[in-house]
Design brief:
Elements: H1 2-16, H2 23-54, H3 60-72, H4 76-89, H5 95-100, H6 109-123
Helix pairs in contact: 1-2, 2-3, 2-4, 3-4, 3-6
Biased composition (Basic and acidic residues): 106-130
Keywords: Acute phase, HDL, Signal
Family: Belongs to the SAA family.
C-alpha cells in the first residue's frame, strides 16, 4: 500500500512540473516534492498532537498556524500536504465534520472560518505566534 502511495505521489509530482527539464531532473524534483510532502504531513501531525497534549483553551488557532507554517517551510510538497490534509480532515463546512464533532468540540461556522484563516496565515509564511495565547507553555 505504501509503495502505491509513493508511486501516486511521484506521478503527481512529475505531472506538476511546469518546466520541461530532462527526465533525470524531473525525477529528482519529484523525489524532493514527495520528501517535502511526507515531512509536511509529519509537521501537521506534530502540531495536532501538541495541540492535544497542551489541551489549552484558545490555542487551537496557534497550532493550526504552526502546523501549516512548518509544512510550508519545507517547500512546495509540504505546502501541498498541508492543503490536502486540511481538505481531508478539516473540511470547514462539511456535514462529515459536523457529524464527527460532538459536545463541545464543535464551535460553529465562525470558529471554522477562523481556523481556516490561521491555516492560510501559516501556509503563507506568517508568524504562528500571532495566534499564540498568553500562558501557553513555552515548550509549544
Amino acid at each position: 500500500m505504501r509503495l502505491w502511495i509513493c508511486i501516486a505521489l511521484l506521478s503527481t509530482a512529475l505531472c506538476e512540473s511546469t518546466e520541461k527539464p530532462g527526465v533525470a531532473e524531473r525525477i529528482m524534483e519529484a523525489g524532493e516534492f514527495v520528501r517535502d510532502a511526507v515531512g509536511g504531513a509529519k509537521d501537521m501531525l506534530r502540531a495536532y498532537l501538541d495541540m492535544r497534549r497542551a489541551n489549552y483553551i484558545g490555542a487551537d488557532k496557534y497550532f493550526h498556524a504552526r502546523g501549516n507554517y512548518d509544512a510550508a517551510q519545507r517547500g512546495s510538497g509540504g505546502a501541498w500536504a498541508a492543503k490536502v490534509i486540511r481538505w481531508l480532515f478539516l473540511l470547514p463546512h462539511s456535514d462529515l465534520r459536523e457529524a464527527m464533532q460532538t459536545g463541545d468540540s464543535g464551535r460553529g461556522d465562525e470558529d471554522s472560518r477562523l481556523d481556516q484563516e490561521a491555516n492560510e496565515w501559516g501556509r503563507r509564511g506568517g508568524d504562528p505566534n500571532r495566534y499564540r495565547p498568553k500562558g501557553l507553555p513555552s515548550k509549544y
